[in-house]
Design a protein that fits this description.
- This is Ribosomal protein.
- One of its GO terms (cellular component) is large ribosomal subunit.
- Keywords: Repressor, Ribonucleoprotein, Ribosomal protein, RNA-binding, rRNA-binding, Translation regulation.
- The structure is a single chain.
- The protein is built from seven helices and eight strands; from the N terminus they run ααβββαβαααββαββ.
- The protein is α+β, with helices and mostly antiparallel strands.
- The strands form three sheets. It has a four-stranded antiparallel sheet with strand order 6-1-7-8, covered by helices on one side. A two-stranded antiparallel ribbon has the order 2-5.
- β3, α3 and β4 form a beta-alpha-beta unit.
- It is globular, with a radius of gyration of 19 Å.
């Protein structure tokens, strides 16, 4: 067994799979059981009781994590002549080199030219995620300093990076609680069953730790 394999197996022994851990304890365990020697991520995964096929139950929103994620993100702003030039470049090359796209409303019809490029990468600006706005400068600053988008996958799960394994526990906990509060606040009105079915955290290559909320 490789050294990494041994670390992962030893990490699993630290976790009681039958236990729902308090958030603070779960985060501390996630850091302790990280399966890599390098600084990785601490992630949260939620299983929701939504039906992803029902448009009125899909989840897509943003949250401003108080301590950011530790990742530097490149922001592209589609506005005016510079925005048109960027659209032209992407259309010609088919390549993107940014993590978040923000656009002023007037640019949206023009962005349709590259929707097939941005869409599959999850980069198409959307009013619901706060990436279509007249105040592009403010939005760019917010997304650069901790505001991130989250949405459900095809199975009704939502995944989010809470920060790095070298973050202080208190900062990861604050990010976790901010995300859970934001998620609870957008419970679909049409949903008749339980909304958040389960929550788990883990570090990169580390075991999953179930969290009590």
């Amino acid at each position: 067994m490789s050294n990494m394999g041994k670390r992962i197996e030893n990490a699993k022994k630290e976790i009681d799979l039958s236990t729902l851990y308090e958030p603070a304890e779960a985060i501390a365990l996630a850091k302790k059981t990280a399966g890599t020697k390098f600084t990785g991520n601490v992630e949260v995964h939620t299983s929701l009781g939504i039906d992803p096929k029902q448009t009125d139950q899909t989840i897509r929103a943003t949250v401003s994590l108080p301590h950011g994620t530790g990742k530097t993100r490149k922001i592209a702003v589609f506005k005016g002549a510079e925005g048109e030039e960027l659209i032209k470049k992407i259309k010609e090359t088919g390549r993107v080199d940014f993590d978040v796209a923000i656009a002023e409303p007037a640019m949206m019809p023009k962005l349709a030219q590259i929707a097939k490029i941005l869409g599959p990468k999850g980069l198409m600006p959307n009013p619901k995620s706060g990436t279509v706005t007249p105040d592009t400068a403010k939005a760019a600053e917010e997304f650069a300093t901790g505001k991130i988008e989250f949405k459900n996958d095809d199975s009704g799960n939502v995944h989010l990076i809470l920060g790095k394994t070298n973050f202080e526990d208190e900062k990861l906990l604050a990010n976790f609680q901010t995300f859970i509060d934001a998620l609870r606040s957008i419970r679909p009105a049409s949903l008749k069953r339980e909304f958040i079915l389960s929550v788990a955290v883990h570090a990169t290559m580390g075991p999953s730790i179930r969290v009590k909320i």
